[in-house]
Amino acid sequence: MHLRNKPGLETAAGICGGYQMLCEQLIDEAGTDTGEINKKVHGLGLIPAVTRFQLNKRTIRSTGAVHPKTGLPAVPIEGYEVHLGRTDPLDANMTGTPFVLLEAGKTDGVCIDQGRIIGTYFHHLFHNDEWRTVWLNKLRKKNGLPERPYHQSRRSGENSFDQLARHAEAHLDIDYLIDLAVKRENI
Questions:
Q1: Which of 54, 96, 121, 122 could be stapled to 112 by a disulfide with Cβ–Cβ 3.0 to 4.6 Å?
Q2: PROSITE patterns, per this entry (predicted)?
Q3: Which domain holds residue 40?
Q4: Strand pairing category for 117-120 and 12-15
Q5: Buried b vs exposed e over 29-54: b needs ≥16 C-beta within 10 Å?
Q6: How many domains does the chain have?
Q7: Running DSSP on this structure, what letter comes out for residue 97?
C-alpha cells in the first residue's frame, strides 16, 4: 500500500529534496548524491514518480503560476531551482497534475487531490505571499478555522537587501571600505 492512500495522511508538501523523497523511488544514476553509481532507494511513495540524480546541477530562477488544472487558484509564483535530480512520473496516467505552469510553457512538480500532496523544485515557494495565504487558508478551512485575508509581507518594489544597501550607503563610508579591501588584497 502506498503512503498516499494511507488513512490519516492529511497534507504533505515537499520542496526540492523533500519533493524527491515524496516519490516512490530515487536512483543515483551518476553517483552524485550517494557516491554509488545507480544506487536505488525507496522514497515515501506519496508521489507516483521516480527521481534520477544526474551529473549536472540545474540552477535557475523561475516564475509561473499555480497550474489551472490543480483546482487551486492560479496565483503567481516565483522562486529558484537548484538540484541534481530530475523527477518523472512512473507512467503517463500518473495521479495528479503539474503543480506550476512556468512562463516558458513548461511545468514543474506535481499536485495531488487539489493540494493535499504537493511536490516542487521551487525554492522560496512559501515566500510568495499570495500562494502562502491560499495554502494556509486551505489548511485552516480543513481544520474548521476561519480564513485570514491576504497580507503582502514584502514592500512593493523593495526587498530587504535594497533596504540594507540604502542603510549602509547612508551610514558607512563605502569608498573608504573599498580602499581598505583593495589594500588588503595587495598585502
A1: 96
A2: GATASE_COBBQ
A3: 3-142
A4: parallel
A5: beeebeeeeeeeeebbbbbbbbbbbb
A6: 2
A7: B
Does the residue 148 lie in any domain? Answer: no
Query: Which residues lie closer than 8 Å to 63 by C-beta, 6 or more apart?
Result: 76, 77, 78, 102, 103
Residue 161 makes CB contacts below 8 A (sequence gap 6+) with none
User: What CATH number should be reported for the domain holding residue 22?
Assistant: 3.40.50.880
Half-sphere exposure of 62 (CA within 13 A, CB side): 26
Q: Residue 1: pLDDT above 50?
A: no
Residues 38 and 111 in one domain: yes
Nearest to 72, CA basis, from 131, 126, 141:
131
Higher-confidence residue of 11 and 187: namely 11
Phi, psi (rounded to 5 degrees) for 145: -105, 155
Residues 160 and 88 in one domain: no
Q: What is the predicted pLDDT for the residue at 121?
A: 93
DSSP-assigned beta bridge partners for residue 82:
59
Strands 117-120 and 110-112: antiparallel
Write out the catalytic residue numbers: 16, 123
Q: Collapsing DSSP states into helix, strand and coil, what is residue 88? A: strand
